[in-house]
Structure to design on (276 residues):
């Protein structure tokens, strides 16, 4: 696909998704508090489908529906996922919140999770992955996606990147990796016939921020097709494996963390225009 045409489709894709503000508004509304109360009062229910249906009505319009992740004696968990847009996503210094490098258009993956375990209930709203307008354009231009498949493709890759980011955080928090959480890294993730360049950055949306402080995320920066990949990129991607199990084994965690450690290369968050 021609570059300008791909860029136009990428712009249209960003514009088709609700602004971050739809979730921010919901967070401050009575419906969000009602959703929390509804989940907490339903943890003894033996009909998780009804619980999800009830919560789905309360999380709208921020999220379309709630799905059941697990519902047994050990844990109850339901979740909602939504692709949202931001016309002004600020990419910031990994250590200095006030230092903004640039702003860009992006699509972010937002997750809402309700869990109950051992009598304790918790709710979490998070953003852990996003994809830049540039990366959307490259997916289309280089044939890894079409306008018709773009939404499905983006949701798939963002969920995969989110899983890696969660493992990355787990490794840092529990001392399971030598990767430094205060350093910006580039990673390359196998995708179709090429690779996705993923960077650890902190982002903020000035107009409608989810949180008071910027978010550390895994950000998809570009897509390289097979003609753009060098031997080094192939070496870094080799052996990639990411379990889809809801509960990961220690072996799975250690394997993926080792892969991330071998894949990650230090870079500068300020790099923007040198991405192919």
């Amino acid at each position: 696909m021609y570059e300008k045409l791909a860029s136009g489709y990428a712009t249209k894709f960003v514009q088709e998704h609700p602004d971050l503000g739809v979730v921010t508004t919901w967070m401050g509304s009575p419906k969000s508090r009602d959703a929390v109360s509804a989940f907490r009062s339903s943890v003894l229910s033996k009909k998780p489908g009804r619980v999800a249906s009830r919560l789905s009505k309360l999380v709208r319009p921020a999220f379309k529906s709630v799905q059941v992740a697990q519902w047994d004696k050990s844990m109850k968990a339901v979740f909602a996922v939504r692709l949202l847009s931001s016309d002004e996503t600020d990419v910031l210094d990994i250590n200095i919140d006030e230092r903004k490098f640039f702003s860009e258009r992006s699509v972010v993956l937002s997750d809402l999770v309700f869990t109950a375990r051992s009598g304790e209930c918790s709710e979490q709203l998070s953003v852990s992955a996003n994809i830049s307008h540039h990366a959307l354009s490259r997916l289309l231009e280089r044939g890894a996606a079409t306008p018709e498949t773009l939404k499905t493709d983006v949701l798939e890759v963002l969920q995969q990147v989110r899983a890696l980011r969660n493992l990355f955080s787990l490794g840092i928090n529990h001392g399971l990796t030598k990767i430094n959480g205060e350093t910006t890294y580039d990673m390359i993730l196998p995708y179709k016939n090429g690779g996705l360049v993923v960077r650890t950055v902190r982002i903020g949306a000035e107009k409608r921020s989810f949180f008071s402080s910027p978010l550390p995320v895994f950000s998809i920066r570009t897509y390289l097709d097979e003609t753009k990949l060098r031997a080094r990129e192939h070496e870094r991607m080799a052996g990639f494996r990411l379990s889809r199990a809801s509960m990961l084994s220690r072996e799975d965690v250690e394997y993926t963390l080792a892969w991330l450690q071998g894949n990650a290369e230090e870079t500068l968050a300020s790099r923007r225009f040198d991405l192919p």
